[in-house]
Amino acid sequence: MSSDIILETRGLTKAFRGFTAVNDVDLKVKKGHIHALIGPNGAGKTTFFNLLTHFLPPTRGEILFQGKAITGTRANQIAKLGLVRSFQISAVFGQMTVLENVRVALQSKQGNSFHFWKSERSLNSLNERAMELLEKVGLGSFADTVTHELSYGRKRALELATTMALDPVMLLLDEPTQGMGQEDVDMVVDLVRRVAVGRTVLMVEHNLSVVSRLCDAITVLARGSILAEGDYATVSANSAVREAYLGTAVTDEVAL
Amino acid sequence: MSDTIKNPEQQQRVRVERERRIAASRRNKIFFAVFIVIALVAPFGIYPVFLMKLLCFALFACAFNLLLGYAGLLSFGHAAFLATGGYITGFVLTEYSGLGTELGILAGTAASAALGLGFGLLAIRRQGIYFAMITLALAQLVFFMFMQSSFTGGENGLQGVPRGQLFGFIDLQDNLNMYYFVLAIFLFGFLLIQRTIHSPYGQVLKAIRENEPRAISLGYNVDAHKLLAFVLSAALTGLAGATKTVVFQLASLTDAHWHMSGEVILMTLLGGVGTVLGPFVGASIVVTLQTYLSNSPLGEWVHVILGVIFVLCVLMFRAGIVGWFSKLIQRNFK
């Protein structure tokens, strides 16, 4: 295996009772790439993410991250190794302030998460770093806002800031632009491009214009298996993909 | 989106929010000072043993609230910790009367913490109703163990537990001395819970309660954090039970019965789960009603009256009495 592969799956399979959601997937993600995982609804993209981060145990197969097998590693340990995910539904802590959201992520590296006898004020030393991260995603002026008051787009930006607080080696983004207006989509594209500097990103994305603008490599998943791989030009020229994915996408648009 | 440009309306809101928080913290401090003053003079007007009972149950409810309100875990087996604290303390003080009372109470608390660890390890991976059921089953197990073992005195319980002396020179046989000791224990437990909620650990706990998968993906071992909350809650419950045993000089099966687990849920919900003062208020109401109604002609109706109050509370103010009250204040006195 060449060392420029940061994440690799070998024969990764997840079978639920009578239904194989992810079937024998061999995926390789190159270090430094923004890699897109696309496919019609129900193709197994989110399940695949859940397998990578061990939110679900795989039925078969292996996952290697930075050359080491992480197949049996617990979900929180995977995050500690630097493989950090986001969620389809923006995952923020609604009742906490924006600053606290980022701070609680920074705390994860500090090892004081069990210190129940210390004052909250001991966390203030993290404020500066948290503000830096918030400024980076344009949320500096919202630091004291209670998070559930933020707009959807800003919640996603906050989620990215929180993820960046862990200083991950690789990010897994699950539909970062889902449910957004064009303006917010542009903002997120810009953000992802900025945070991806010096890191690797694997993202599930439905919006093909986002994919074409951002991604170095694309893997198309359909019915749990890899249908095609390559850059945008290769994949979009593939007839099987046009049939399976773009065909479905067109009907999706009609349905909307 | 022009997030970087400071929006005056937004800033205004943030400022209001910050002022509100400062005002709330000032209000809490005043409340606390008033409470201390009242608590210090109360035994001169009210029967101290009743006050001590109230403080013990208030600590019990506060400990339970730490678990339900701040870790989101509904335990239906907290009676086991109350009873364990009581029995172990009662046993130690009876058998080794040379030891100071403080060591006896410490032993009971430690035993409850250890039992809490055991319960927690078995139950913590389950969620919701399954968690409640496992804790209930384990508590029933503990109940029957206490009924069968010899050191607990079976159905009779441990009677005549000596109150002994605090630090070897303060005579706790004196009700007033005992009262101030109980008050100190209550304040210690109460402040420890407050500190826990507002600690680095409390922040993580809050994050876990708000969005567990996200907390995991940030690298937190969610089960271990919940387990700590469970052990802390069990230990403080044990402390309450141990203190109660010293006050009444009695440890009995009543404390281990599942009724007790239900009662603490009632107290917490009645007062307001997840509020600072709620459990105290809830415990006060329940204990007062129980004590005074059982001495009145309405004695047999205690459970019915409590039941009606509980139903009314659930129907009318879901956030409990304190939760409802603070919402009222927020709405009208902003």
Question: What does this molecule look like?
Answer:
The complex is a heterodimer of chains A (256) and B (334). Chain A has 256 residues and is of the alpha/beta class. Chain A has two domains: 5-92 and 168-255, 3-Layer(aba) Sandwich (Rossmann fold); 93-149, no CATH class. Chain A is built from nine helices and ten strands. Chain A has a six-stranded mixed beta sheet with strand order 6-7-8-3-9-10, sandwiched between helices. A four-stranded antiparallel beta sheet of chain A has the order 2-1-4-5, with helices on one face. In chain A, helix 3 packs across helix 4 and helix 5 packs parallel to helix 6 (182-195). The termini of chain A are far apart. Chain B is mainly α and 334 residues long. Chain B has a domain at 46-256. In chain B, the strands form two sheets. Chain B has a two-stranded antiparallel ribbon. A two-stranded antiparallel ribbon of chain B has the order 2-3. The longest helix of chain B is centred in the N-terminal third of the chain and has 34 residues, at 8-41. The chains are: A alpha/beta (256), B mainly alpha (334). Chains A and B meet through helix 2, helix 3, helix 5 and helix 6 of A and helix 1, helix 6, helix 7, helix 8 and helix 9 of B.
Compute the average pLDDT of chain B.
87
Q: Give the total of beta strands of chain B.
A: 4
Helix content of chain A: 25-40%
End-to-end separation of chain B:
32 Å
- Low-pLDDT stretches of chain B are 1-5
How many extended strands of chain A?
10
Helix content of chain B: over 70%
Q: End-to-end span of chain A in angstroms?
A: 44 Å
Q: How many separate helices of chain A?
A: 9
Assign an overall shape of chain A. Answer: globular
Query: Total number of helical segments of chain B?
Result: 13
**Per the principal axes of the C-alpha atoms, what is the gross shape of chain B?**
globular
Strand content of chain A is 15-25%
**According to CATH, what is the class of the largest domain in chain A?**
Alpha Beta
Instruction: Report strand order across the widest sheet of chain B.
Output: 1-4
In CATH, the homologous superfamily of the largest domain in chain A goes by the name P-loop containing nucleotide triphosphate hydrolases
Structural class of chain B: mainly alpha
Any idea what the radius of gyration of chain B is?
21 Å
Classification by helices and strands of chain A: alpha/beta
Biggest beta sheet summary of chain B: 2 strands, antiparallel
